[in-house]
Write a structure and sequence with these properties.
Oligomer: single chain
Distance between the termini: 75 Å
Number of strands: 4
Strand order of the largest sheet: 1-2
Strand content: under 5%
Number of helices: 22
Helix content: over 70%
Structural class: mainly alpha
Radius of gyration: 25 Å
Length: about 500
């Protein structure tokens, strides 16, 4: 009894530690977002809505402008109707000082989306206690934040973050709601969750194509699974699947897609895209499993094993689940590989990396559940005894093991860092965890300098006595904040977007 109480107390302490580490890691990511500023596509998507706010000062006018903007992009550039609409409403259109709100909301939305989905999966379905839930969720979210492929396109450049990270987070909420819908027995709750899920499905279907496609695929297989079980909820999921497919077809059929396709001079091939998707899926998995990530999953293994062992599921088909989940995971890359070839944008690679951590956690849990069920058989008593022996040994040395794994994780993170010379000949470190990168940028004053130079530019842009502007280049380009800039060519589309946004004849960088 004492051993069990000590073990529960240890798990509680670890959960509190992991949740605290996660919260602390988010702080510098939030603080540095206060220095974020719009660039490139932000000015294109926000032009009409910013003008509507400046001229009318009403939300109704802004929403009307967002609708017109979405319609124009649908017919002339891309079919992502809900993505274009939401992006047209990014906070910067109400004033440059509000731009960081978008980054803060993205971070919060991403974290809470993960927390919600994990809560439903682990606590509602696997009957985990809140401490196991906190350990697993905190660790996976921490990995997702610290090892994202490109943080600036993930959270700090809204034209990359909103349509990709934002819609990925919407997908997390959606499947959390759908799993809650399938779990509840109360009809009035089912009706509410169905309506809310339908709205989210329609929204996601008009967002980025990878998330829209994978959402439709998962819903289809959920419908088939429930249909095989002769569960009446298959009709509800079928309804959601129809919405997902219909929305995706509306997005794909947009006239703007063919116009954009012609601009990149690439001949699409469906077969090539599918084959490349599997190859990229394998590559991205291998590329995601760095030493810190591997150490973190070793840390999670005993918690996932204990959770799987006490759950009611049988975990009979680990190989099938692995193959199926790999196919779905690989499908994330299919739309851009079809449209653009191997030139995948970093904002898309971000959501592939986020998805890897869900893919890895789910498959590890399922394999450990299968292993636990195998060890329950009498003929495997010797193996089960060995597992119990290892478990008892770990419980006796749990504090030492936790310290050792924490030390290995820190060493692994340090080992990934590359040190060299930056553009100005200064010392430059790359491959830092995102929060460390943010903390260094804040402490060194780099983020503050970038912010000050942006604010000085904005003052110049708002000078009504000047119509032809030359502005200096940034001397500070923080890794988490700097995405792109105008050029010395006033005919460059980025220069023209800024000139149109601030009602100037031309804008360019000075020599």
């Amino acid at each position: 009894m004492t051993e069990k109480t000590d073990s529960q107390l240890f798990i509680k302490k670890i959960a509190i530690i992991m949740a605290t580490i996660l919260l602390l890691s988010i702080v510098p990511l939030i603080i540095i977002s206060l220095y974020s500023h719009p660039s490139a596509d932000d000015f294109s998507f926000g032009l009409k809505t910013a003008q509507a706010w400046e001229e009318n000062g009403t939300l109704n006018a802004v929403f009307e402008a967002a609708y017109k903007n979405t319609k124009e992009f649908y017919f002339n550039w891309q079919g992502t109707y809900s993505g274009s609409f939401i992006l047209s409403l990014q906070p910067g259109i109400f004033g440059e000082g509000y731009y960081p709100i978008g980054s803060i909301l993205l971070i919060i939305f991403f974290v809470t989306g993960n927390l919600f989905l994990f809560k439903v999966l682990f606590m509602d379905y696997l009957y985990a206690d809140k401490w196991h839930y906190l350990i697993i969720a905190s660790t996976v979210i921490l990995l997702s934040l610290q090892f994202m492929y490109d943080p600036v396109e993930g959270f700090y450049w809204l034209s990359g973050g909103i349509p990709y990270t934002g819609f990925y987070a919407l997908g997390l909420f959606l499947f959390g709601l759908i799993l809650s819908l399938l779990h509840t027995k109360k009809n009035y709750i089912r009706i509410g969750l169905t309506l809310l899920s339908a709205i989210l499905v329609a929204t996601i279907a008009g967002g980025n194509y990878p998330t829209a496609l994978v959402t439709a695929i998962i819903l289809f297989f959920m419908m088939v699974y429930l249909g095989i079980k002769k569960d009446k909820m298959a009709f509800v999921i079928g309804f959601l699947t129809l919405i997902a497919v219909a929305g995706l077809l509306i997005s794909v059929a947009a006239p703007g897609n063919s116009m954009r396709q012609a601009s990149v001079s690439y001949s699409p091939s469906a077969l090539k895209a599918i084959l490349f998707s599997f190859a990229y899926g394998g590559y991205s998995i291998a590329n995601s499993i760095n030493l810190p990530v591997l150490t973190a999953f070793i840390f999670l293994t005993p918690f996932l094993y204990g959770l799987a062992k006490q759950s009611p599921f049988q975990f009979r088909y680990p190989l099938f689940v692995l193959i199926w989940s790999f196919c779905v995971y690989s499908a994330l890359a299919t739309p851009p590989l079809y449209a653009m070839g191997v030139n995948l944008p970093e904002r898309l690679i971000n959501i592939i990396y986020y998805s890897f951590f869900l893919f890895a956690t789910g498959n590890l849990l399922y394999f450990l559940g299968w292993l636990a069920r195998r060890l329950e058989h009498p003929q495997n008593a010797a193996w089960n005894d060995a597992v119990v022996l290892i478990k008892n040994s770990m419980q006796k040395n749990n504090i030492l093991i936790f310290i050792l794994i924490s030390f290995l994780f820190i060493c692994a993170c340090i080992g990934r860092i590359e040190v060299g010379k930056g553009i100005n000949g200064n010392l430059e470190m790359t491959n830092l965890p995102s929060s460390v990168e943010a903390a260094i940028s804040l402490a060194s004053g780099e983020a503050k300098t970038f912010d000050a130079e942006n604010r000085k530019r904005i003052e110049t842009y708002f000078d009504n006595t000047l119509d032809i502007l030359e502005v200096p280049s940034y001397t500070a380009k923080p890794y988490l904040l700097y995405y792109d800039d105008i050029t010395q060519n006033p005919e460059d589309w980025r220069n023209q977007a800024v000139a149109n946004y601030y009602d100037k004849i031309s804008v360019r960088l000075s020599e």
